[in-house]
């Protein structure tokens, strides 16, 4: 996934039917920071008291470090646009599953993942009808508590809205990191999955640790399989081995599976297992 930028709106990078990820825990604090950056004198207490800049900086640091991220799927409409600012209204959506099913239960092979990711890019009935594998139902949540405004401008260095999402992003950000294929280990032995790797086109011999095709990404897993297969019977050049070690680390960090500050693997949340 990538942060939504102001230029994305005019370029048509996404549409009103694209599903984006919104970090609702960061949306409010980010908006206050934007107000402060424009004119901090407009932020006052009920008694009309304006806090010194130093106090606001301390408050912002607390909001940045002490909030647990909570992501939701949204569709957006452009409320207003000017050369300096774009306001997007975000409407929360969620997939409808039977009580005994989850998203990963339907993503059992490579084609089903590709179809689902195509639907994420444009979640309309016409797109769903054209897919080989029908996606789950999608509902818009009603009420003001499920609607958020996000302001895009050139000054803000942080983002709370993200585009170009895929299945690993959903697993990492919404499903707490739990993966049914690798049990959240992020790698699998490609010859010991009972046919799973065949269905994802990444089957090969045992004795290697292959990036999981579901929670690490189908294309990333395919690229990793090509590297492992190329040097299955010989030792790879040190430079290529180091490059793939870095690739794995970067992908884990990008998806939030490891702590970027301490490079420690995060455990999946308890309610996702």
Explain how this protein is built.
By secondary structure, the chain is an alpha+beta fold. The chain folds into 2 domains: 2-97 and 136-165, no CATH class; 187-272, no CATH class. Helix content is 36%, strand content 17%. It has 10 helices and 9 strands. The chain starts with a strand and ends in a 19-residue tail after the last helix. 23% of the residues are buried.
Topology pattern, helix = H, strand = E: EHEHHEEHHHEEEHEHEHH
Oligomer: single chain
Calculate the terminal CA-CA distance, rounded to whole Å.
24 Å
Helix content: 25-40%
Helical segment count: 10
Label the structural class: alpha+beta
For the structure shown, list the relevant keywords.
single chain, 273 residues, alpha+beta, 2 domains, seven-stranded antiparallel beta sheet, two-stranded antiparallel ribbon, 10 helices, 36% helix, 17% strand, globular
Briefly characterize the structure.
This protein is 36% helix and 17% strand. It is an alpha+beta fold and 273 residues long. It folds into 2 domains: 2-97 and 136-165, no CATH class; 187-272, no CATH class.
Secondary structure layout:
Layout: E1 2-3, H1 6-11, E2 20-23, H2 24-39, H3 53-65, E3 71-81, E4 85-96, H4 103-106, H5 110-121, H6 125-130, E5 137-140, E6 147-153, E7 161-163, H7 167-173, E8 187-188, H8 196-199, E9 210-211, H9 218-230, H10 238-254
Antiparallel strand pairs: 1-7, 2-3, 2-7, 3-4, 4-5, 4-6, 8-9
């Amino acid at each position: 996934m990538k942060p939504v930028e102001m230029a994305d709106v005019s370029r048509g990078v996404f549409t009103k039917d694209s599903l984006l990820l919104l970090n609702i825990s960061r949306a409010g604090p980010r908006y206050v920071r934007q107000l402060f950056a424009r004119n901090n004198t407009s932020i006052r207490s009920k008694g009309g008291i304006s806090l010194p800049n130093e106090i606001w900086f301390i408050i912002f640091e607390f909001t940045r470090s002490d909030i647990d991220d909570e992501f939701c799927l949204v569709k957006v409409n452009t409320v207003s646009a000017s050369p300096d600012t774009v306001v997007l209204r975000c409407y929360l959506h969620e997939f409808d599953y039977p009580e005994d099913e989850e998203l990963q239960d339907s993503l059992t092979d490579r084609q089903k993942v590709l179809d689902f990711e195509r639907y994420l890019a444009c979640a309309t009935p016409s797109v769903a009808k054209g897919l080989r594998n029908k996606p789950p139902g999608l509902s818009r949540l009603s009420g003001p508590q499920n609607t958020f405004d996000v302001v895009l401008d050139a000054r803000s260095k942080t983002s709370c809205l993200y585009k170009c999402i895929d299945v690993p992003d959903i697993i990492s950000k919404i499903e707490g990191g739990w993966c049914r294929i690798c049990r959240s280990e992020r790698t699998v032995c490609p010859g010991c999955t009972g046919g799973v790797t065949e269905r994802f086109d990444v089957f090969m011999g045992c004795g290697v640790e292959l990036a999981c095709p579901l929670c690490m990404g189908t294309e990333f897993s395919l690229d990793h399989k090509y590297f492992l297969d190329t040097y299955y019977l010989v030792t790879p050049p040190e430079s290529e081995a180091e490059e793939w070690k870095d690739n794995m680390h970067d992908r884990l960090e990008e998806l939030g599976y490891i702590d970027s500050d301490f490079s420690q693997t995060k455990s999946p949340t308890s309610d996702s297992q």
